[in-house]
Amino acid sequence: MINMIEVKTSKLSDGELNRGVFATCDISKGELIHQAPVIPYPNAEHVHIEKTLLADYAFEYGKNHTALLLGYGMLFNHSYQPNATYEINFPNHTFDFYAYRDIKAGEEILINYNGDVDDDEPLWFDKEKEDSDKK
User: Fold this and answer.
1) Of 85, 105, 123, 129, which one's alpha carbon is 20 to 30 angstroms from that of 32?
2) Taking CA 40 as the corner, what is the angle to CA 45 and CA 33, rounded to the nearest 5 degrees?
3) Cross-referenced Pfam families, in alphabetical order (predicted)?
4) Number of domains in the chain
5) Can you give the pTM of this predicted structure?
6) Domain extent for 105
7) How far is it, in rounded angstroms, from Cα 90 to Cα 79?
8) pLDDT averaged over consecutive 10-residue blocks of the chain (135 residues)?
9) How many whole angstroms separate alpha carbon 74 and alpha carbon 9?
């Protein structure tokens, strides 16, 4: 089985590591790209994670939990015009990433961090940028 994705340097990520997930081959719309296992924890414990870099990588996991994703899960970068989406697979304890449209080999795979491909609500880093621009 060919590995459809790889981690490479991303021009979109402005973090220290500048990583993103890229297609190694053409991926068809609707195709499963990756199943990322989760480490869930109760929302009440998130206050501890918020003190660390991991806070930027945590995902909502149902009503009462947050999760850290393993595999490539935490390395997908954000776009308000994503080429991939994800679904939470609670029985499997995974986040399942699917191609939202056809993706070409070499293209960075992007998801909307809001969870819905059409949700353009500003995210925490957009709000922080807006606040710093006002100063």
Assistant:
1) 123
2) 140
3) SET
4) 1
5) 0.84
6) 5-134
7) 25
8) 86 75 97 97 94 89 94 92 96 97 97 80 56 51
9) 14
